Amino acid sequence: MSLLNEILDYNEKFVEEKQYEEFITTNLPDKRIVILTCMDTRLLELLPKAMNFKNGDVKIVKSAGAVINHPFGGIMRSLFVAVYELKADEIYIIGHHDCGMAKVKPEGIIEKMKERGIEESTIEQMKFSGVNLDEWLKGFDNVTESVRHSVDMVRHHPLMDKTVPVHGLVIDPKTGKLDVVIDGNKDENR
């Protein structure tokens, strides 16, 4: 049986038994917060529990390393939608210790692409088209500085409401302990 079939079999039972009822909420975040965090599997349940959030409390946007690498990319668009359409009044950028993005090397990813069938000519065509794959795929050296960079990108974006606090934190993926990098409520951070 494929993983998809296992998921669909489980889902059928989940719906029949009305297990979804405990998760019913609206599409608006009750605590009026949007979080950008890493897609690391260790944070799936740990992060909301460590922050005392339940289903429906917050919007969560995920990207590798909680990195915003383009001011007009999908991550920023999601944050704008959360603020302007879904009534989020605060933004939290939460990176984590022991992040895989601190170990990512563009040349390694490109080699793995080739191993999985991406032709060298395709990679060259990307470069010829103006895509700097090394820059686009690179990770970071320091999670605190990476969080600071993402907070600055949001806070200084010309379309962001300047009254919205943008906080930066780093979570320990083992214990859930949060360290504040930037407290967006302080005037010097706005």
From TrEMBL:
Pfam families: Pro_CA. Its cofactor is Zn(2+). Its EC number is 4.2.1.1. It comes from Planococcus maitriensis. The keyword Zinc applies. The keyword Zinc applies. Zn(2+) binds at residues 38, 40, 96, 99. This is carbonic anhydrase. InterPro entries: Carbonic_anhydrase, Carbonic_anhydrase_sf.
